Amino acid sequence: MIKAISLVLNGDTYVSTELSQSIVRGVFSGAAANPFDQLSQREFQVVICLAKGYPMNEICEMLQVQYSTAHTHKRRAFEKLNIEDNKELTDLAGAYDLLS
């Protein structure tokens, strides 16, 4: 935790060991350079909003979709990205500079 805080305070990006290993495995397995490229447009919109910290009810309003539809997009995107929670999503999106 101290290493992560120190890196961020110095203007660097912290990437967890699990995420960095996942990225390296993807590169060596021939996976897409950017894992977000495999998402549909709507899945991408939902996960970027989640990564930016928007709650699901606001995402539904912004994208004008039902909660169940947004949740389905989220679930499918998490499966494609091989992640389990919003923290991993935020780390991955940050690693690919998608949050600016």
Structure, explained:
The chain has 100 residues and is mainly alpha-helical. The chain has one domain: Response regulator (Rossmann fold, 3-Layer(aba) Sandwich), CATH 3.40.50. It has 6 helices and no strands. The protein has helices spanning 2-9, 17-29, 41-51, 56-63, 67-81, 86-95. It is globular. The two termini are 23 Å apart. The model has no long low-confidence stretch (mean pLDDT 88).
Class by alpha and beta content: mainly alpha
Architecture in CATH? 3-Layer(aba) Sandwich
How confident overall, as mean pLDDT? 88
CATH superfamily: Response regulator
Distance between the termini: 23 Å
Layout of helices and strands:
Blueprint (H helix, E strand, L loop, with lengths): L1 H8 L7 H13 L11 H11 L4 H8 L3 H15 L4 H10 L5
Helix pairs in contact: 3-5, 3-6
GO molecular function: DNA binding
InterPro entries: Sig_transdc_resp-reg_C-effctor, Tscrpt_reg_LuxR_C, WH-like_DNA-bd_sf
Protein name: Regulatory LuxR family protein
What characteristics describe this protein?
single chain; 100 residues; mainly alpha; Rossmann fold; 65% helix; 0% strand; globular; Tscrpt_reg_LuxR_C; Regulatory LuxR family protein; DNA-binding; WH-like_DNA-bd_sf; transcription
Summarize the structure.
It is globular and about 40 Å long.
